Amino acid sequence: MDTFALRTNKLNLYYGDFHALKDVDFQVYSRAITALIGPSGCGKSTLLRCFNRMNDLQDDVRIEGEIYVHDERLEDIDIINLRKKVGMVFQRPNPFPFTVYENMVYGLKVHGMGHRRAWREIVDRCLHSVGLLDELKDKLHTPALELSEEIKQRLCVARLLTVEPEIILLDEPCSALDPIATMRIEELMIELKERYTILIVTHNMQQAARVSDYTGFMLLGDLVEFGETSQIFTSPRDERTEGYITGRYG
Amino acid sequence: MIDRTVLKEHLVKWVLVAFALSSLLFLFLIFIFILAEGLPLFLKVGVNKIIFGMKWAPTKGYFGIFPMIISSFLVTIGALIIGAPLGLSCAIYLSEYAGKRTKMLLKPAIELLAGIPSVVFGFLGVIYIVPLVRSYLGGSGFSLISTSLVLGVMILPTIISISFDALVSVPRTYREGSAAMGATKWQTIYKVIIPSAKSGILASFILGMGRAIGETMAVIMIAGNALKIPTSILDPLRTLTGNIALELAYATGDHRLGLFSTGVVLMVIIMILNYVANFGIKRKIAK
After folding, report:
1. Which string of DSSP letters, residue by residue, matches chain B?
2. What are the pLDDT digits (tens) for A227-240?
3. Of A46, A171, B60, B243, which shows the fewest CB atoms inside 10 Å?
4. Do B263 and B162 lie in a common domain?
5. Same domain as B132, residue B267
6. What range defines the domain where residue B24 resides?
């Protein structure tokens, strides 16, 4: 079994003339939580979005270097299967303007997974995984947009789980949430790492310190330092990392 | 000095208010005028005999416009059957697939299409569509299907521009969310974007219908203007608008009032359509 779920080798990314990622060598350990921290515009979201090729949606992006998903080259995986395997949760909860149930079966429909009759069971199981089953089992046919922000974000995670991903990318998933909701999502992440590999981008250092096993610090497109979270936060090797975590800038 | 500037500011504001309100005034006047001329006949002859009357012979006291109401609806539905799929496809292409350059070419072309006078559409219909229908499908060619075809093209700009706005305003986060689930572009469009833009798209269809039902010149040139309910798509027909335009020039007395009554019916239909369309648009904003 490979230890790295995701890996990059000399990854460079350009938005037009702007050099957004510079020679990034980065690893994400399987079944652990890896956090990417750094000031805004440092490239952490851009790096995250490389792994499910969300950058493809933008014009004018050029990528050089290698990306591996479980030792398979990213280019060798077709984009549909890649995005099924590597799911993503966004900064703002983005349930579709349908009912809870329709949101939950969206991925199943898109990938033609399972029989319609088996869907209900999958929906229940995935809602249970994110702790929403009791809350939503009687509200499956209410519009998802009427839910609170935290529930919406959990629903987005649950929606992802229906297509059985291996890796979950979280792009500042708590930035639209209040502190209590944030705490609950963090607990959810820790529960999910038993079964999934998690990569989270966050601007909140305490969050990285609380939930992650490994942390990467990025600055101006460089991955400055990468290591176990306890090491990064207690004895950073690079003085730029130290400057950021002690709050000298960022 | 200061007083004069302030005065000028106020003056400009009030002049603009007056101009802005004038459109409301015009609407109100039109409303009053048509009702004043059109309602008396309803009272004299009876609402039923006008709206559900089958015979239109105003000089002999028959004011039935039921065949025209049906005909107006038929050409409108026909126009929608042709215009809705074409217009929606075009709007989807423009909002989801077209590159910047194609967009720069297509959007002005569609605006130009909206600006072509309806008499030109009627002219092209008479020259090309009518003979084509006559030789390939039979009949005189002046028919429901010819009219629907031409109207279908005429309502395209309305449908395209309003559907396009509805599609473009679907939040980027829905597209990203769908793509991140592994949906293909078409799955995203079909399963997420179109359902999200549903009310705007429906509004575009309804406003297109309003445009079709109100169209006059092209219709009288192509429809054949026969006074009966068409029984096939090759039959000629006369619409409410056509009736007014064809006869107003020589109508007097009750005949003239009959045409105003036709106008009242037309206006009510269009008001209902507009109301329904606005309701759709508002509901979308409320969401």
Report:
1. -HHHHHHHHHHHHHHHHHHHHHHHHHHHHHHHHHHHHHHHHHHHH-HHHHHS---EEGGGTEE--HHHHHHHHHHHHHHHHHHHHHHHHHHHIIIII--HHHHHHHHHHHHHHHHS-HHHHHHHIIIIIHHHHHHHH-S-S-SHHHHHHHHHHHTHHHHHHHHHHHHHTS-HHHHHHHHHTT--HHHHIIIIIHHHTHHHHHHHHHHHHHHHHH--HHHHHHSB--SS--SSTTS-B--HHHHHHHHTTT--HHHHHHHHHHHHHHHHHHHHHHHHHHHHHHHHHH-
2. 999 999 998 899 89
3. B60
4. yes
5. yes
6. 2-43
Residue B242 lies in a domain: yes
Whole-number pLDDT of residue B280? 67
| Total count of domains within chain B | 2
Q: Is A87 in the B-facing interface, judged by CB distances under 8 Å?
A: yes
Q: Nearest C-alpha of chain A: how many angstroms from B31?
A: 40
Flag if B183 and A110 touch (Cβ within 8 Å). Answer: yes
Residues B133 and B248 both lie in one domain? yes
Please name the residues between 168 and 227 in chain A that touch chain B, using a CB distance below 8 Å: none
Domain residue spans in chain A? 4-91+167-245
Pairwise CB contact (< 8 Å): A90 & B177? yes
- A/B interface, count of CB pairs below 8 Å: 65
Pick the closest to residue A247 from A201, A206, A186 (CA basis): A206
A60 chain-B contacts, CB cut-off 8 A: none
A155-191 pLDDT tens trace: 999 999 999 999 999 999 988 888 888 888 899 899 8
The H or E element containing residue A121 is helix A116-129
Higher pLDDT, A115 or A201: A201
Q: Nearest-CA distance from A163 to chain B in Å?
A: 8
Name the residue facing A96 among B184, B192, B287 (closest C-beta). Answer: B192
Would you say residue B121 lies in a domain?
Answer: yes
Interface subset of A 18-47, CB within 8 angstroms of B: none
Task: Identify which of B174, B182, B187 has the shortest CB distance to residue A94.
Answer: B174
Q: Which CATH class is domain A4-91+167-245?
A: alpha beta
User: Which CATH number goes with the domain that contains B242?
Assistant: 1.10.3720.10
Is B239 in CB contact (< 8 Å) with chain A? no
pLDDT for the residue B1: 59
